[in-house]
Amino acid sequence: MSVRYFYTTIKAIEGDRVFWCEVPQLRKSINAIAGSVADDEAVYFYLWQWLQNDPNNQLVKSHWMVFLQYRSCMVTQRVYQNVGHRIDADYETLFYYLLNLLSTAITNNPRNFYGNFQDNKTKPGFFRLILEKWTDKKLRNTLYNFLRGEYKTIGRTNLGIVSLFSANKIQKVLRTSGIFNENHLLIFNCFREVKKASLRSLDKWQEEDWQQVIDRLHQLQPQVILTLEEVQAKLNQIGEIMRNHIDPPYSKFEPNNYDDNSNYFWENIPSKKPSKDLLQQQEIQEDINKLLITLEDEVKQIAYCYYHQKMTQAQIANRLGVHSSTISREITQLCKKIYQLLCAREGKDCPILLNEIKLQSRQKQEIDAYLEYFCQSYLTQI
């Protein structure tokens, strides 16, 4: 029951383990709310409206503070799994940082934390899921900002970040950022070539290593004449762009792209019968449950890791001992099966063969939201 996050607080922290306990007064309050509304989704929305209408009420503030405590714990676990081995900080340090932030910046009014959350632009039935994802992303970006300031962005300089990526990835992100100058990519390729051949780590590079980059650049493009400082400046620029791509700064955080002009997938399905909020229909939940039951055990495990544990495709591939392309393919196939199911319910024509289905990004995004919702409540039990 996801509403327990609103009445459970921290009892103790030991290393990377957090122990929780219920707060009787908060539990009683949630039980009263749950008894007057339809489901957990409605409890979330009730508490949200209560916070907006009476932000100084101590009871509702307490509900949201313990909720933010729990989300902070989840976010810290994920961040620490990804970068803990690269930084000189333990789990407790990161978690306490977020808790201190919450206690100093949010306690007076938790509503301030959600100042730019646009509840009027959330899709009906998605409020809880979108609120949790929005909260986690803001906390994650706040934590990464802390790491940027204290630990040079998970222990890496701009040049260190550049060395993580392939030429194709660099080129794609540069073009997305409006940089079409081929010199940037050429400099990167020369840098990577020399780095691969070098016996020294990047932080121990000397002038002669950089001179090799310049010499290789001049060999490939004699007309391009750059100094060592200019080469480093361009690589630093690439690194900063890639940093913002993989770890966007808090100031650039965008909650969700649910704007007034969005063409929602569900609204674009020509229905042969009137249909209200699809997520509210028990029949759809049952249909998806039946589909999940038919999955092979490995696919169930992939879905559980990806949608419930929020693991990356690479992490899942390492755990299962397969190539990451296998994980990507299975996730895509599952999304297409959900698409077929929904189209069949609404009387929309859909290809029988999965490889003939081409999902648009908005369709994929909302199907992902469906699967996250069900993986939290269903796949944990399989």
Q: List low-confidence stretches.
A: 151-155, 248-280
| β-strand amount | under 5%
Radius of gyration: 24 Å
- Mean pLDDT, all residues: 75
Contiguous helical run count: 15
Termini gap: 17 Å
Please tell me what the overall shape is: globular
Q: Give the domain tally.
A: 3
Query: What's the order of the H and E elements?
Result: EEHHHHHHHHHHHHHHH
Overview of the structural elements:
The chain has 382 residues and is mainly alpha-helical. It has three domains: 24-150, no CATH class; 158-251; 276-376, Arc Repressor Mutant, subunit A (Orthogonal Bundle), CATH 1.10.10. It is built from 15 helices and two strands. It has helices at residues 24-34, 40-53, 58-83, 91-105, 127-155, 158-162, 167-176, 182-197, 207-220, 228-246, 282-293, 297-308, 313-320, 324-346, 361-377, and strands at residues 8-14, 17-22. It has a two-stranded antiparallel sheet. The chain starts with 7 loop residues before the first strand and ends in a 5-residue tail after the last helix. This is Helix-turn-helix domain containing protein. It holds the Pfam family HTH_38. InterPro entries: Cro/C1-type_HTH, IS30-like_HTH, RNA_pol_sigma_r3/r4-like.
